[in-house]
Structure formats: C-alpha cells, structure tokens
Amino acid sequence: MDDVATNERRIMVAVDEGEESMYALSWCLKNVISENSKDTLILLYAKPPRPVFTTLDGTGYLFSSDIRSAIESHSNDVAECVIEKAKRMCKDLQNVKVQTRVESGDPRDVICQMVDKLGANVLVMGSHGYGLIKRAFLGSVSNHCAQNVKCPVLIVKKPTTNVAGNK
Amino acid sequence: MDDVATNERRIMVAVDEGEESMYALSWCLKNVISENSKDTLILLYAKPPRPVFTTLDGTGYLFSSDIRSAIESHSNDVAECVIEKAKRMCKDLQNVKVQTRVESGDPRDVICQMVDKLGANVLVMGSHGYGLIKRAFLGSVSNHCAQNVKCPVLIVKKPTTNVAGNK
C-alpha cells in the first residue's frame, strides 16, 4: 500500500451554484487538505447541457438565436462566478496548487469522467440531494458518482441551521 | 462556520469483515486523521442480527439451542476479531483517542444511529458494494448511510489490484 499522504494527492472538488458544494469545499479545506504535503486541488464545475425548452403547445420554436445565445452567455457567467467564488475560498492556501476546470455536460457524467481523466485520488462533493420523489427517478449526483468512480468519495451535507426548515 | 480541524473531531469508521473496510480505515488514517489535532477515532462494528435460517421443507426447526449458541458465539468471535484487527492498524497513533463499539443490528440502521448518538463529525466506510442486481433491491449500506446521516460521509473503495478480476 503506498503512502498516499506524503505523496502528491490530487483532490477534486465538484463545485456548483449551490451553497452545499461550497460548504463541501470549505470542509475539505479544513479537514482533508494538508499544507505540508504536495496536494493539488482541482475545482471542477460541470456546466449543465443546454436545457430543452418545451412550450405549452409543444411547438418549441419559441427561442430565437438571440435568446439562445443569451442563455449560453448566462451559463458561462454562472460558471465563471462559481469558479471565482471557489478560488477565493482557496486563496489562503500556501503550498497547494489550485487548478480549475469547467466542462459541459450532465454533472454525473462530467464528474466521473474527470475523476478518471485527471487522476483524482479523492472526490469531494455536496450531497446534491434532490427531493425524495425526484431522487427515486433520477438518483442523486453524489450517489451516482459514489457508485461509479474508483477513488474515495467524500459526500458533504450542509448542516441545516434553520431548525424549522429542517425537514 | 466553526473551525472543525482545530477542535476535537469525532471520526467514525465503520469496519466489518471485508478488506474494503480495512482499506477505508487505512486511507482515513493517512488522509483524514491529523496527529496535531485532538481527534477521536471511533471504530464501529455492526454485528449482523441473528440470521433467519429456512430449511428446504420450510419447517425451520433444524437448529437446536446448542447450534444457536454456537452461531452466536461465532458471531461474537468475528466481532472481536474485526475490532482487534482495526485497533492494530491504529497502534501507531500518538495523540488520537481510539474508541471501539460493537452494536447488533442491520449495519444500515446501526451506523446511522451511532453517528447520531455518538456525535460523529465524519463517517468513513467502505463502499460495501453488492452486485448490481442485489443493489437494485437493497441499495448498498454506504448509499443508505450517505443519504441518511447528517455529517459528511467518506466512501472508500478498495482499488482492484488484479486487472483480470476488475469487472
């Protein structure tokens, strides 16, 4: 068994718009990242594929190319915003290399592919919990990744601070 | 957000007979446990409930009390053996308190309950993967726990060293 901790570790954190993934990143920074080792932190954002819009009458020709490009542009803005926010959270790291990566596609596929492609030693992500009904059909992103990637997966849930909203 | 890393962390590792859970423990020792902090490591073994034996003709009165107590005794031996093996792996820890706990019941329930009861800050476990078909019906222990515990869950898969057996 190799001594992973003293070697370079490639720690991938899947970030998205949600607060939970930022909490996962912060938990990882405090609990997993070691300033003494040669860790590389990879911040990955999966840009959702262009959504399929269906109009009420099913015709679906509602969006002009102007609007389509506005959606695309918005999507890029979101990606940049998420990655910038995540990078800011890592600004105090001294000895850790921080890399960022934005890839388009279903987050489930993107994350699994990137773990493999970039040789991550551990994947960190929020629990990405859908509601009960949606989960029954789709499965959550974190479940899918935990089942399909080869490396250890750390799934972090944001603690609920509002007890009333804790359902 | 509290600075968990400098406070006492309660790290629970669910161990069982399988090599994967021991690999998860070793990964945790190298990558999560910090000798500088006041970590407490809790080794938890869920002793499976007494299995229900059904004879081929459905009568089920096959086992005498002698045999039942032999099964019970074997089950205790296994629990002790697993816990001892896990403790040996932790023998080099200097500043980390190691606690052990054996509880009877379905591992899914036992692990979730103990995380809550003992106030674990992170749960570490093997992926406990069943085969595809069994998983479709039962779900895996790790999936269940990842969905149901409140704290971060680290799911560790044992890397397959034998490529031929890597299906």
Please outline what is shown here:
Two copies of one chain form a homodimer. Helices cover 38% and strands 19% of the residues of chain A.
Explain this structure.
The structure is a homodimer of 167-residue chains. The first copy, chain A, contains five helices and five strands. Chain A is of the alpha/beta class and 167 residues long. Chain A has one domain (4-165): Rossmann fold, CATH 3.40.50. Chain A has a five-stranded parallel β-sheet with strand order 3-2-1-4-5, with helices on both faces. In chain A, strand 1, helix 1 (19-31) and strand 2 form a beta-alpha-beta unit. In chain A, helix 3 packs parallel to helix 5 (141-148). The radius of gyration of chain A is 18 Å and the shape is globular. Chain A starts with 9 loop residues before the first strand and ends in an 11-residue tail after the last strand. Residues 1-5 and 163-167 of chain A have low confidence and may be disordered. Chain A binds chain B through residues 1, 3-5, 9, 23-24, 26-27, 30-32, 34, 122, 127, 129, 140, 142-143, 146-147, 150-157, 159, and chain B through 1, 3-5, 9, 24, 26-27, 30-32, 34, 122, 127, 129, 140, 142-143, 146-147, 150-157, 159. Strand 5 (153-156) of chain A pairs antiparallel with strand 5 (153-156) of chain B. Chains A, B: Residues 76-103 form a coiled coil. Chains A, B: This is UspA domain-containing protein. Chains A, B: Residues 9-157 form the UspA domain. Chains A, B: Keywords: Coiled coil. Chains A, B: InterPro entries: Rossmann-like_a/b/a_fold, Universal_stress_UspA, UspA.
Q: Return residue spans of chain A where pLDDT drops below 50 for at least 5 consecutive residues.
A: 1-5, 163-167
Q: How many distinct beta strands of chain A?
A: 5
Indicate the CATH topology of chain A: Rossmann fold
Average pLDDT, all residues of chain A: 81
**CATH H-level superfamily title of chain A:** HUPs
Strand content range of chain A: 15-25%
